[in-house]
Write a structure and sequence with these properties.
It is a single chain. The protein is α/β, with parallel strands linked by helices. It folds into 4 domains: 53 residues, Phosphorylase Kinase, domain 1 (2-Layer Sandwich); 206 residues, Rossmann fold; 222 residues, 3-Layer(aba) Sandwich (Dimethylsulfoxide Reductase, domain 2), CATH 3.40.228; 111 residues, Beta Barrel (Barwin-like endoglucanases), CATH 2.40.40. Helix content is 30%, strand content 17%. The strands form 7 sheets. The protein has a 7-stranded mixed sheet with strand order 5-4-19-18-17-6-7. Helix 4 packs parallel to helix 19 and helix 9 packs antiparallel against helix 12. It is globular. Bound molecules: ligand MGD (2 copies), iron/sulfur cluster and molybdenum atom. Iron/sulfur cluster binds next to loops.
Length: 670
């Protein structure tokens, strides 16, 4: 038996863990690492399921090739032979854009593998890159880029001096955060509530709301309205000279929010007058605040507006990049503060040819267009990398038919899932315990600048190979040297990680020695974002957003909203549950009064209808949810909520984001 320190890479919380391994390299246990500076011994049931997941029956051990209805285990050589031939002919006949990739959650946690996979697509010359960013949170890079010229400034609560914190449409006690990592959430949030003040704004009285000093439950989709009112009121308090010095567009912003008077806000948000006035007073009392959103607002039709007005509120109150407000974590490895990037205007590129009305941003096409691209014959070979397109993307029926139509569907994963069942080729890649890693980009989501590095805990089992190796080898077959002269067969994980660390605080060799340490010198270091800003500072009123605000319509009467559950992460562990044998049920939460009115009781089967599709789910009356709202989790293969969503209806014109929150639905008895 031996023990090894590592960190969990199931979700962005990156909890420090100690893994116990027996003499045959069987992973027998995981416990929280008490010495880890952020997680301090905390783990959740998913992290503790890593041993069970590592040895689960659905883990992939061999490359698989589809032969008729069956999969046949084959060698890597045979797999590469086959892919070389098929990809070359797709490219020759239909051009480079006919080869695409969809990178999901699993890829986000394997930055070395993801980097080589993306380089392969670039070398082929394809623009057909899709990632889960466009179904999760494109409003965040959009608003960051439009307002600061940089697409990925991530505001982080200043927990050294906790002040007023607003959590809007995020439930970190269960999710451990959206683009902000919340390991050990109860302890940290309680401290913020005690030493500062914590407000949760969510139509459900969530697990997080229970820890808060105050909870407001607005009508879903209306967050931009109460935020617009706060901006209007706090603009009156702002030191105008100082504000005009740090930002442009003050007058345009004031004009945009001029119509948000209190009466209108009360009527449209369903919040009451006094609670709104209390919130305004709280911001005035603290002077500054830090606010974070989550999927409740980033997946709504008004996503961009909510994010914009939240950013504007920070800038008006001088809360960004200031002590007592929010700071921007540059990331220990990502080293955002060390980069030299000209501020961009944030304009979009032309979108995919089958959906010309959709934009392309940050070098990717919106996932909403994937079915169209396949149906039109533009996309013929698709790599699905650390993702489960079938459970995560909209309109399951249409997407499944499209995926079946592909010449090549190549799934690179650690386990089988609903998408690999449709694949032509399945590539078994090394899982998180079988590879060395540094967090890249996810380091910017952490509450401090923290050095993280892990060695592989056990060697890859069976025929599993590191993802960087798989794509580098495939690159070689197609004539591309993706590792700059390094032979993938001779290379180590560290060789693949090193290029990621060029902007790191320390070179990889030193980073390894400091793994698990917080860099106190640059934790909550303020002011660096100014160096990267456009002339004139923050852009308070980007024209695209002002225009969108003018056109926004009222949210639906009965709407579907998403929620995270503790024992699965998207589709991971949804079917198996956690190692304690418990599994989350995909029930639909309905307010008891709504249930009574509609004639449902607990345990009844109800038909949920939306976008011309239906899904039958078990009703769970729940006091914690607002009336007029029903909540359904995602990630389930058999009861897949994305049967109800659409890649065509109400897709956001600025980002191509699919609406997953605030979907108009109807309920009827089965
Ligand atoms: N256990 C677990 N953890 C996860 C995941 C998981 O599946 N399971 N998934 C991971 C992923 S990929 C992500 S992106 C993050 C997401 O992390 P979060 O964004 O924190 O996700 P949720 O817990 O669903 O919280 C969304 C909240 O928004 C509320 N809401 C819905 N509509 C509205 C609205 O219009 N306005 C407001 N103000 N609130 C609204 C919902 O009631 C819900 O409580 O979680 C990650 N962590
Ligand atoms: N209706 C609705 N739809 C949603 C959401 C919602 O709230 N409502 N949430 C959306 C959100 S926030 C997201 S992020 C997307 C998620 O969308 P996806 O990323 O497409 O889905 P996941 O289920 O997270 O798939 C992750 C895959 O990574 C694999 N994996 C795990 N570890 C590794 C590894 O080390 N390497 C590799 N290569 N693979 C690995 C897992 O086995 C799994 O198959 O879904 C979105 N879809
Ligand atoms: S919260 Fe759970 S899943 Fe996320 S990193 Fe920590 S242990 Fe892993
Ligand atoms: Mo996500």
């Amino acid at each position: 038996m031996r023990e090894q320190r590592s960190f969990c890479r199931i979700c962005p919380a990156l909890c420090g863990i100690v893994v116990t391994v027996d003499d045959d390299d069987r992973v027998v246990g995981v416990r929280g690492d008490r010495d880890h500076p952020i997680s301090q011994g905390y783990t959740c049931p998913k992290g503790r399921s890593l041993p069970a997941f590592h040895h689960a029956d659905n883990r992939l051990d061999h490359p698989l090739l589809r032969v008729g209805d069956q999969f046949e285990p084959v060698s890597w050589e045979r797999t590469f032979d086959d892919l070389q031939r098929s990809l070359s002919s797709v490219i020759a006949d239909h051009g480079p854009d006919a080869v695409g990739a969809y990178l999901g959650t699993g890829a986000a946690f394997d930055p070395a593998g993801r980097r080589i996979a993306r380089k392969l697509l670039q070398s082929i010359g394809s623009r057909s890159l899709y990632t889960s960013t466009t179904v999760d949170t494109p409003c965040k890079p959009l608003v960051s880029e439009l307002m600061s010229g940089q697409p990925m400034l991530i505001p982080v609560v200043d927990e050294q001096r906790p002040g007023l914190t607003l959590l809007i449409g995020s439930n970190p006690v269960v999710s451990h955060g959206h683009l902000n990592a919340w390991s050990n959430p109860r302890t940290r949030l309680r401290r913020i509530a005690e030493e500062g003040e914590l407000w949760v704004i969510d139509p459900r009285r969530t697990e997080t709301a229970r820890l808060a000093n105050r909870h407001l439950a607005p009508t879903p989709g209306t967050d931009y309205i109460w935020l617009g009112w706060l901006v209007r009121e706090l603009l009156k308090d702002a030191d105008e000279v100082a504000l005009r010095e740090r930002a442009s567009g003050v007058d345009e912003l004031a004009a945009a929010v001029a119509g948000f008077d209190l009466e209108r806000v009360v009527e449209q948000t369903g919040l009451d007058r006094q609670e709104l006035l209390d919130l305004l007073e709280a911001i005035r009392r603290h002077g500054r605040f830090a606010g974070q959103t989550g999927t409740g607002t980033t997946m709504a039709e008004s996503a961009n507006l909510t994010e914009w007005l939240l950013w504007a509120l920070h800038i008006v109150t001088d809360s960004y990049d200031r002590p007592g407000g929010a700071w921007f974590n540059p990331g220990y490895v990502s080293g955002f503060d060390r980069r030299d990037r000209e501020p961009s205007a944030g304009s979009a590129q032309p979108g995919p040819p089958s959906r010309p009305e959709l934009p392309s941003r940050w070098g990717e096409y919106p996932c909403a267009a994937m079915s169209d691209e396949i149906e039109s014959g533009n996309l013929r070979a698709l790599f699905v990398i650390g993702a489960n397109a079938v459970t995560s993307l909209p309109d399951t029926e249409r997407l499944t038919a499209a995926l079946e139509q592909l010449d090549l569907l190549v799934v690179a994963d650690v386990a089988t899932n609903e998408t690999s069942e449709l694949a032509t080729h399945v590539l078994p890649v090394a899982g998180q315990l079988e590879r060395a890693d540094v967090p890249h980009f996810i380091d910017q989501m952490q509450p401090a600048v923290v050095a993280q590095y892990t060695d592989a805990v056990v060697p890859p089992q069976a025929e599993r190979r590191p993802m960087w190796w798989v794509f580098a080898k495939l690159g070689q077959r197609l004539g591309f040297d993706l590792m700059r002269g390094v032979d993938p067969d001779e290379a180590s994980d560290d060789d693949a990680i090193t290029p990621l660390t060029v902007t790191a605080q320390r070179p990889l060799s030193e980073l390894k020695e400091h793994a698990g340490e917080v860099d106190l010198a640059s934790w909550a270091e303020f002011g660096w974002s100014e160096r990267l800003m456009p002339d004139g500072g923050w852009r308070l009123a980007p024209a695209e957003l002002v225009e969108q605000l003018e056109q926004m319509e009222a949210p639906p009467r009965l709407s579907l909203i998403p929620r995270r559950q503790l024992r699965h992460l998207n589709s991971q562990l949804a079917a198996s549950g956690t190692e304690d044998g418990r599994r989350d049920p995909p029930h639909v939460l309905v307010h008891p009064d709504d249930a009574r009115e509609l004639g449902f009781e607990a345990g009844d089967l109800v038909r949920v209808r939306a976008n011309g599709h239906a899904l039958e789910l078990v009703v769970e009356p729940d006091e914690s949810i607002r009336r007029g709202v029903v909540s359904v989790p995602h990630g389930f293969g058999a009861l897949n909520v994305n049967v109800l969503t659409s890649g065509v209806e109400s897709v956001d014109p600025l980002t191509g984001m699919v609406r997953y929150s605030g979907v108009p639905v109807e309920l009827e008895p089965v």
